Give the backbone structure.
Amino acid sequence: MDMLTRIATLTAETIANTWPDAQGLPAAEELRGLLAVPPNPEMGDYAFPCFRLAKTLRMGPPMIAQKLAAAWPHAEVARAEALSGYLNFFLNRANFARETLEAVLAAGERYGAGDEGAGKTVCLDYSSINIAKRFHIGHLSTTMIGHSLRRIYEFLGYKTVGINHLGDWGTQFGKMICAYKLWGTKEEVEAGGVDALEALYVRFHREAEQDPTLEDQGRAWFKRIEDGDPEALEIFNWFKALTLKDAARVYDLLGVSFDSYAGESFYIDKMEPVIQELRDKGLLTQSEGAWVVDLSEDNMPPCLILKKDGATIYATRDITAAIYRQNTYHFDKCLYVVAYQQDLHFRQVFRVLEKMGYDWAKDCVHVSFGMISFEGQALSTRKGNTVHLDDLLREAVDKARAIIEEKSPNLENKDEVARQVGIGAVVYADLSNNRIKDIDFSWSRALNFDGETGPYVQYTHARCCSLLRKAAEQSWPEPDFSTLTDDESQALLRLIGRFPDVIREAAARYEPSLITRAVTDIAQAYNKFYYEHRILDGEPAAASARIALTDATRSVIRTGLRLIGIEAPERM
């Protein structure tokens, strides 16, 4: 039982014993959610606001706090003091150290894991790259937020389904084929890969500014794709294969994988029954020649299902995809990790599903995130203004390699560590802030190896591993946990003790940055502890306790980094 749960349980018992005849008293689970960390450590380790009990007990919060403090019988866990309507708890430091470290070391890298997701399935739609375009940093956030959330949910016992909803439908593919037929060759595209395709795409739009008839030719080629024309489909599928081959290199670097690459084109032959269902349920109405679902009662524009020419759009395909996913995977939750500009789109899609009578529509969630610009400039493949992710990762790895050569010239596996550190720096930079914030990606910030960065946290992990290797060279007595009552040890232990709650909060809020922040705080607290205390020196039982705290820190940092998609080198 973690400390928060234990204090909540003991508080519930104390409340019930103090007012045995009171009705409607909160249970321990509710009390746990009310416990807070005081802003000043001198005010205690945890605090319970007694305002929740005022109406039930018909008594002022300060008086309630005083009565509970006087009745508190659990000094072996914590002492309780009343302050301004709060019941403040001061942990028994020695017992807290022992219980926390025993829990972490017993669980190992499963510390914080759970089984609350057993028997439940979460579908995650993330990354969703576009065919015939290089993987650029604009797809970094969706890829890594989705990948991290998948690991978090798996850690909590859920079955997960990772879906890469490929952008592989639309007139742009007709334009790509048109450009290829006019200016490209098979040999050039095979040799140049997606770079060659992007160059053709950029040239098409440049030429179309001078010759607008090219737009008609592009639409004609896409119509041939829709109609199943063999030549058009052969070129289209070739473009897709080249793109996935290129993307696989980036996914391998990031350690990202998917269970499904079913993109927009997968649902083309599955939409007609859904459109007919909308008709049968009286949800389709005609508007200026197009067919829409009226959402005026929800204060939203109508959801366009069929354009005037009978063509489908994103909403049609996303509604069809959601129904397919529920029928195929029977999800308990379906997350769409897509930029915040698509907020209205997903609100419309989810509302249409609700109007169709699907109760599970409430389990569809748009996990929005901010946009990425580069050095203050918006990204645009059409204008040729992109920053390719593999270039960014390669630069980061090279930078890490140079620093490692300087600081650790005798390190045996420099290339492997450089890969772990360089890629970790990029991922950390993306997941270090609240996901909804826009990011202006900067080379200097991403590759900064000082301060609150991925390499800093990784180095702390490596420092712990180094100390543990030295400690393993001799035998140690049982640890004396009463020696871990100093402020530095306790600050670190409190952060470690809260780590399981952080994981659950990250899952509940779809916010990997909470874990990034937690492991950073733990790394900073450990380094403060390290500089204030000689880990392996002094009385053996005290050193043994410090070794145990070091081992727990190593384990929690490693777990946290893994949950956000970053590796943890043991030597740096």
The longest helix spans residues 186-210. The longest strand covers residues 78-83. The mean pLDDT is 93.
